[in-house]
Amino acid sequence: MTTSMGTTKRTLGRSGIGVSALGFGCWAIGGEWQSADGQPLGWGKVDDEESVRAIHRALDLGVSFFDTADVYGTGHSETVLGRALGTRRDDVVLATKWGNVFDPDTRTLTGNDDTPEYARRALTASLRRLGTDHIDLYQFHLSDADPARAAELRDLCEEFVKEGLIRAYGWSTDDSGRAAVFAQGPHCTAVQHALNVLDDAPELLGLCERLELASVNRSPLAMGLLTGKRHGAPAAGDIRSRPPAWLQGFGDGSGADPRWVARVDALRDVLTSGGRTLAQGALAWLWARSPRTVPIPGFRSVAQAEQNAGAMAKGPLTPGQLAEIDHILGR
After folding, report:
1. Is 40 in contact with 236 (CB distance < 8 Å)?
2. Regions of the chain with pLDDT less than 50
3. What pTM did the predictor assign?
């Protein structure tokens, strides 16, 4: 829903749950964690007290949707988010994810588990860390899981809804066929997928439109490329210092890929129109791209919270600006 003052509210798919048009992604506030072979999976060191202040500031600026996962910081992100929300839990729509197995003592991802038994254990643990009796949006986190097993988990999620443990559910996947499997459940209301101005996803957006799902957008700022910051090599402990195969735009870990930087620079004038920062323009593109999008940029500071939330007041780009961007990018 767009108002004369910008883009402030959206509906979370067919659930009818109202959310702020901008969500906050809580991956980064989990701090440092790693894979079993030492691959960094976090965004480096984090100040928990600054994370709490940033969450409070976001709430004050109208952000009501917070997305985390049990594996972010091997439970730490959920714990910090739960502590920050405190008595304001009922003011927000809370999303988390399950499917990964981890060791919080060593902050290590140890594997994954797609069994129904594990899903229930994971949900119980997330509720405890978040300090709540229900999750508003519970999301399957294994993007390439077997669709037949996913159908079992979809049915289990329907049981969780009946038990009052969750209100709705979805799948975090970039595969539209898999998303459609979950969408067969009446309380499936969202698919979380990668989407930003550099990396469009027309097939998934089409699915969301046809099936009345929310499009929850991870990587809305292309892992930092669309913030315009020009840093050197990421610090050790930052996933971008040893980028996995799926992480585009960071080459060998020595810094942003010059080819991707050039694409961002080509879009700068359009995205910074109307007094927007580059990041605010990237979020404005997402809102203009579809009425179902809910971007969830990450944050680690009050300043980032303020900049991201400030995008809502400036609203979406125009259809003409969307067309200009497609022309610049040759698509």
Report:
1. yes
2. 1-5
3. 0.96
